[in-house]
Request: fold
Amino acid sequence: QVQLVESGGGLVQAGGSLRLSCAASGRTFSSYAMVWFRQAPGKEREFVAAIIWSDSTTYYTDSVKVRFTISRDAVKNTLYLQMNSLKPEDTAVYYCKYRDYWGQGTQVTVSS
Reply:
């Protein structure tokens, strides 16, 4: 069983920054990807960024490239999402995912 717990969300003004964390427990993470998704009100959940746990290869959706950075700490079993230059359209609940496991989500609200 895998547990994923997100934190770090909040209210920030446009142009500001937030750092999301996803603490993972329950197994050893190896060659699989850990992924950040987000879901805005009235919209489908969408891919944001992913990292291959073993070699830190990263992937981003075009709308967050340059502004967001995904990383992981293998010792702490924690996934991060550094979000800079935030825009109102980044407002959403952010979820981390590992294989079939999802966290509970953390709310990010960006005011204009």
Q: What stands out?
A: The radius of gyration is 13 Å. The chain has a mean pLDDT of 95. Residues 51 and 104 are 19 Å apart (CA to CA). The first strand starts at residue 3 and ends at 7.
